Amino acid sequence: MSFSAIVIDKGDAGQTVAIQQVDEAQLPEGDVTIDVEYSTLNYKDGLAITGSSPVVRKFPMVPGIDLVGTVRESSNGEYKAGDKVVLNGWGVGEGHWGGLSQVARLKGEWLIPLPAAFSPKQAVSIGTAGYTAALCVDALVNFGVTPDQGEILVTGATGGVGSVAIALLKKAGFTVAASSGKASEHEYLTKLGATTIIDRAELSEKGKPLQKERWAGVVDSVGSFTLANAVAQTKYRGAVAACGLAQGADFPATVMPFILRGVSLLGIDSVNAPKAPRLAAWDRLAKDLDASALELIAATEIGLSDAIQAGADILAGTVRGRIVVDVNR
Fold first, then answer.
1. Is residue 147 part of a domain?
2. What CATH code is carried by the domain that includes residue 245?
3. What is the pTM (predicted TM-score) of this model?
């Protein structure tokens, strides 16, 4: 049996990306075979598809770090044929074939059951970006940041992580400031729950090691100077949850905020997070991400044939919210 998938390969002439017909015998090892319904596109998928960063660790590779689908076959005791499952991360789409395909074979330990609160399309709309946002909010709350301590800054606010983080923080009672370079999206950010909107240019250039204290906490998906300035503006004993590198992987900062203000930098890894925090994050999403916010965020659905161009669009910064990929059209 063959099926359609986006396949990334690399030869002497460089990287190629195309939709191909793949034989099921070519699927990688795993104890659960899934008929994929939806995948999605994240920043990391954009890097893989365009080859802008070496996130793909072996070739050929099927990208797609998220998927939702139905179990066709399983030798894993936790799952049986007919179960609806969600996959986020675990190096899928980098070192193991991923979700931009009509069929996937994965390790059962990487999966979680589809939460009852969400349809397959809703769950993949949330995807790794939304799940990462929930991990960030959980990290700030578990650290002890409370709404009465002041505003929470969300950088990269119109992206998938930022959009979901704003909605979750608002629902949890926080006042949210959104950083964005897109003046046309102010209404969108306000509807999600942002009270204040700042131009990302305020954060994206080199700043002083210590700046005026503004934020009780930060959710940052941007990195580089943006993260350094956010840390420099965080209040005494505040916390910054860092989960991304849209501006860059560098961190051009000093230790001053950490040793003079007691600021804590909380690293958020969504790829290899254990099952307990994964389930806790999805519980927060089920509880606090209401349908109206999800409808705002999940604005675009495309077919598999459009996903290659959409990967480039994400890196160009022209995408708002999330992109859902119906792999069967």
1. yes
2. 3.40.50.720
3. 0.91
